[in-house]
Amino acid sequence: MKTKVLNKLLRISLLGVANGIFSSAVCVALDRINFYYAVQKYEENLNEVERFYQETGTHFQIYNPVPYQLWWIRAACLNVGLFILATLLSHMLIGRKVKSVFLRWQVVSVLVIAAWAVAILIIEVVESLVTGKSLSMLLKVNEYEEVTMWGFVLTTLAVNLVWGFVIKASARDYEMRQSERPQLDGAV
C-alpha cells in the first residue's frame, strides 16, 4: 500500500519537475527577447542623450540594461522546487475534491506565483533588515524588471494552461486505451 502511494507521489513530482523545467525554459527565452528590446531602446535613448548633450550641455542618466550572467540557473532551480511543492500540495489537498485535471494545474500555477511573491517579499524584508534600507526603496523596479516580472506571471499562467490541456488529453487517451484492452480472467 505504501509503495503505491510513494509511486503516485513520485509520478506527481515528476510532472511538477517537467512543468517547472518547461516553464523556466519559456521564461528564460522570453527574458532574452525582452532584454534584446531593452538594449535596442537603450541605444536609441543613448543617441538621443548624446544629441541633447551636444545641443544644451546638459547630461542626464538613462537606464542601461546589464545582463546578469547565469541568473536563470538559481531561478530555474527555485522554480522547479516551487512547482514540485505546488504540484504535491494541489494534488493532495484538492485532488479528491476537484476531478478536473485541467483545474488542478491552474491551481498549481496560482500556487507557484503566490510562492514566488512570498519568496521575493521574504528576501526583500531580510535585505531591508540587514542593510537598514527602507523596504519601499528596495521594492522599486525599473521598466525592464517590471516587464520581466509580469512576463513571468503571464508565462506561468499560459504554460500551465497548455500543460493542463496536454495532461488532460493524455489522461483521456490513456483511459481510452485502458478501457479498450481485453480483460483476461485469471491471467497473471
Question: What's a concise summary of this model?
Answer:
By secondary structure, this protein is mostly helical. The chain has five helices and no strands.
How does this model look, in words?
- This protein has 188 residues and is mainly α.
- It is built from five helices and no strands.
- It has helices spanning 2-56, 71-93, 101-131, 135-138, 143-180.
- Helix 1 (2-56) runs antiparallel to helix 5 (143-180), helix 2 (71-93) crosses helix 3 (101-131) and helix 3 runs antiparallel to helix 5.
- The two termini are 19 Å apart.
Largest sheet: none
Q: Which spans have pLDDT < 50 for at least 5 consecutive residues? A: none
Intertermini distance: 19 Å
Shape: elongated
Backbone CA Rg: 23 Å
Number of discrete helical segments: 5
Q: Any chance you could write out the topology, listing elements then pairs?
A:
Blueprint: H1 2-56, H2 71-93, H3 101-131, H4 135-138, H5 143-180
Helix pairs in contact: 1-2, 1-5, 2-3, 3-5
List keywords for this structure.
188 residues; mainly alpha; elongated; single chain; 80% helix; 5 helices
